[in-house]
């Protein structure tokens, strides 16, 4: 929940559970449901698009810095975090997990 990357996407699970729970409680015609769906779309797009590509760029930059000669001023910098985003599969898995949790919380087994 507090870290980036991994399977499934906990951020996607959280926002999809929120949207489904609001939809079940207030109905899909409510303004709160619409806001939750828009928020979910933004979070999932960010996780699988922007953050994933930023992580891939960080990975390449870390490789470049590792290949610098020891006397270069940037050779001693701390590596960038490269586990920032999620693959589309991780986002979908998180979204499905969130939907399932919201449904189970409404009708516990």
List descriptors.
66% helix
What's the end-to-end separation, in Å? 25 Å
The chain-level mean pLDDT equals: 81
Q: What's the overall geometry?
A: elongated
- Count helical runs: 3
Low-confidence parts: none
Describe the structure.
This protein has 109 residues and is an all-alpha fold. The chain has helices spanning 10-26, 31-66, 88-106. α1 (10-26) packs antiparallel against α2 (31-66) and α1 (10-26) packs parallel to α3 (88-106). The longest helix has 36 residues, at 31-66. The two termini are 25 Å apart.
List the topology elements:
Blueprint lengths: L9 H17 L4 H36 L21 H19 L3
Helix pairs in contact: 1-2, 1-3, 2-3
Short overview:
The chain is mainly α and 109 residues long. The chain is built from three helices and no strands.
